[in-house]
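Now produce a polypeptide, keeping tokens residue-aligned:
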Amino acid sequence: QVQPVESGGGLVQPGGSLRLTCAASGDSRSIISTGWYRQAPGKRRDVVAIISSGGITNYADDVKGRFTISRDNAKNTVYLQMNSLKPEDTAVYYCGFGLSGRVSWGQGTQVTVSS
């Protein structure tokens, strides 16, 4: 069973940047799409950005123009470059692999935007 492994979270000041990494642990051939999601305290988990196996991307409206999702197929890795970070971007960020009929979730990585 393929599992995402996230890294790259941390504390950053408003206006700063972070890059999150999602690596595949296990056989990645079953992955249909990869998405980044986030969940702030007391809120539901929402999609941030998704990239299909063919490279098609989609973004939540509040991150368009600031975040970029990309993939390195040779490394079985997906990245989320986050620029111009705002305090409201603070959340636990999860990587999810879209498989046939279900999503495989990573353990999450904390992103805190604060001065």
Notes: DSSP finds no helices and eleven strands in the chain. Residues 55 and 71 are 8 Å apart (CA to CA). The first strand starts at residue 3 and ends at 7.
